[in-house]
Amino acid sequence: MSQKALSRFHQPISVPGRRLLSHLPLVFVTKKVSGGGHKSVNHEIPLIPFIDFLLCIVLFLLASFSASGELPIDKSVRLPSADNVEDMTQAPMIAVAGQMILVDGIPAGTTRPVKEANRMQKLDELFNLLKGRREVYKQINPGKEFHGIAVLQVDRETEAVIVKSVFQTAALAGYPNVSFMVKSRGGGKKKG
Amino acid sequence: MAGIDVGGHGGRRNVDHQIPLIPFIDFLLCLVSFLLMTAVWTQMSRINADARVPGPPDPDKELDEQKKDLTLHVEMRGEEKFQLVWKEGNTVRDTIDVPRKPVRLTGDDFSYPDLSQKITEQWNSQGSHRADSDLKVDQAVLHTDNTTKFEDIIAVIDSIYAPQRPIKLGGAEKTIPAFNVTFAVD
């Protein structure tokens, strides 16, 4: 069917093109809208590179998604910051949140006895839980070296007697390599 | 010219589909927005402390074998100053006072740059393990009182880790802290 024949009918879908203000019978407006001899302001996004670009962003974000920042931090715990830090490692997380002591989210006693006595002492519940974990690791991985790493997540206002008690208890339970979780200021030399 | 027939014959469904581009781009943009919103920009790290300290001298070994290393004791119980004490066993070799001058950083953060500098100087002059082939590190012992706040302890440990040294491990060279920190039991 020819174009002339088609034009007799109302067509809901028309050929794409510039429509804005084209009906105005003013030459200078039409000229302006169509570019007026200058470079056209109406650009089309090249779709294929655009999709490639989006896919690259998605892949990058997905790759960095499971970074160490995903670590669960109690809302009440305000961590101190430091320059000379190491990357986080896979290890049991001992959190001191208020008076509660948690190992990977599991309650492991309170800091009340230490606070009341105001002297460093072994925390029995924490000791038993950590010792149990160490034994389970050794049973699951026979012959494999146990590194004895634990990470302490402690609020910046916590008193040293509590920190030292938890530190000592972890060491006694077979975790002598204790790290403190901090926020990196990025000023020092970060070690892998 | 020959071509590959991708279906559409024999009443079967056509296998040649086109991805609808606009919904696909919308989907990608949603995915990007979600990942950007859930991205964690604060980097969590750790600062190490070690309870594995060298034990008491072994009476069965020769005295020469038991040559003791100098240990740096950092006394942070004073209000006005830190005290750096170099000890060889129980014998005090040197004592240095460092004024306690915290420098405020952003927010509640602070550091002790004077202490970092003094510890670096001290390690450069008296550290026992400075060769890059030496796998051992010097020991620092931190003395605190019971009421010291954790942020203060971390600031001092951070200063103790300021001196760094190269080490050769399996042909590759890397940088490690010059000291290993532990807590005093007193």
Task: Give an overview of the whole structure.
The complex is a heterodimer of chains A (192) and B (186). Chain A is elongated. With 192 residues, chain A is α/β, with parallel strands linked by helices. The N and C termini of chain A lie far apart (72 Å). Chain A has helices at residues 3-6, 27-33, 47-63, 112-117, 124-140, 160-172, and strands at residues 81-82, 86-87, 93-97, 100-103, 106-110, 149-154, 177-184. Chain B has three helices and ten strands; from the N terminus they run H-E-E-E-E-E-E-H-E-H-E-E-E. In chain B, helix 2 (113-126) runs parallel beside helix 3. Chain B starts with 20 loop residues before the first helix and ends with a strand. Classes of the chains: A alpha/beta (192), B alpha/beta (186). The interface between A and B is large, with 63 and 50 residues. Strand 2 (86-87) of chain A pairs antiparallel with strand 1 of chain B.
Features:
heterodimer, A: 192 residues, alpha/beta, six-stranded mixed sheet, 7 strands, elongated, B: 186 residues, two-stranded antiparallel ribbon
